[in-house]
Amino acid sequence: MENSNIIQPEDLGISQIIDANLDRAREGLRVLEDWARFGLGNEDFVIRIKNFRQLLGKNHLEIYKMSRNHIEDQCQGLSHVEQINRKSPAKIISSNSARVQEALRVIEEFSRSHNNKLSKIASEMRYEIYTLEIELLDFNTRKKAELLIRENNLYAISDNRDNLLEIIEEILLGGVKIIQHRFKNGNDKEHLQDAIEIKNLCKKYNSLFIVNDRVDIAIASNADGVHLGQEDLDIITARKLLGSSKIIGITANNSIDINNAIKNGSDYIGVGPVFETSTKKNKAPVGIEKISDLTKDIKIPWFAIGGITKENISFLKNHGIKKVAVVSGLLNSKNPKEEAIIIIKKLSYEN
Q1: N or C of the chain: less Cβ packing under 10 Å?
Q2: What is d(CA 222, CA 192) in angstroms, rounded to the nearest whole number?
């Protein structure tokens, strides 16, 4: 026997239970490990999960393996209808984390009387899996948001106005995957209600909802992130409040602010205004040449903003600008959906 302090349980059924749950826990861990490796590309997660699997494998003793045929499992092959609903990575992460946690609890209980070492390992590991699940889900959420930022070239910005939700839904129907909302008129209670409703709309269309300036409203509405100006809360503090799963964008129009944004962990940058714009009357246009110079070495996604409409998209693309943020061009359009479709096509078209 592998350890002289371990005794054979009087009931072979106990060994069979432990054997089955060691297999179950390791199988669940392997699912999590493969998603961490191939879905998330995160080496730290892979190493942590692999260590869990190896530790359980090391303690999968022969006395457990030899009990496998003690009693025939009459429930083998049973499934549950909920299993077919595990279609998203998030659901797979949660269901397999639960599988591991449940298996470890069974191992902890049934090994306590004869293998205290294994019982203690299962107990400690179970609590670590609780934390790991949250970290995997947060990282998965962030990766999904980062992908939407990278793959979509049109970023729509809205503000308070009549028929706001109808306009935003039209924009989403036009294919926009990133919506930022600016709060202007009204009180915080109204702002939060708007944010929650916009968030629900964006979720319906698998799009990101970004709150302008207001970290508190972003948290309260469970927005996908926040966009900050240079006079707003700093990135590091915002990240502490928002957590690791949320997107943070920064407005920057000079090399110092751009470099600081990248250094402090901004996920994307808004650069502008490119042209004169009614939404930023007090800011002079940065200009195409300066924007081209400022952004030539930026490795994270960036969006040009300010006075951009479907009429000047080709001009911007000829100067190397591929991602744009649009405000009035969409909000004031008679047909926001059609306007979004046209702009997206123009941005996708190779000059």
Answers
A1: C
A2: 10
Domain pair 12-143 / 152-348, same fold: no
Query: pTM here?
Result: 0.83
Task: Give the integer Cα–Cα distance in Å for 318 and 273.
Answer: 18
Could you give the maximum distance between any two Cα atoms of the chain, in Å? 83
- Give, for all 351 residues of the chain, the pLDDT tens digit: 445 467 777 788 899 999 999 999 999 999 999 999 999 999 999 999 999 999 999 999 999 998 887 666 555 554 554 555 657 899 999 999 999 999 999 999 999 989 999 999 999 999 999 999 999 999 999 999 999 999 999 999 999 988 999 999 999 999 999 999 999 888 999 999 999 999 999 999 999 999 999 999 999 999 999 999 999 999 999 999 999 999 999 999 999 999 999 999 999 999 999 988 766 666 788 889 999 999 999 999 999 999 999 999 999 999 999 999 999 999 999 999 999 999 999 999 755
Show me where the domains of the chain are located: 12-143, 152-348
Q: Which CATH architecture has domain 152-348?
A: Alpha-Beta Barrel (3.20)
Q: How far is CA 316 from CA 21, 240, 274, 351, in A?
A: 60, 36, 9, 11
Q: Is the CB of residue 98 less than 8 Å from the CB of residue 83? A: no
Tokens of 236: 């590091």
Strands 247-251 and 225-228: parallel
Q: Please, what CATH class does the domain formed by 12-143 belong to?
A: mainly alpha
| Residue 37 DSSP symbol | I
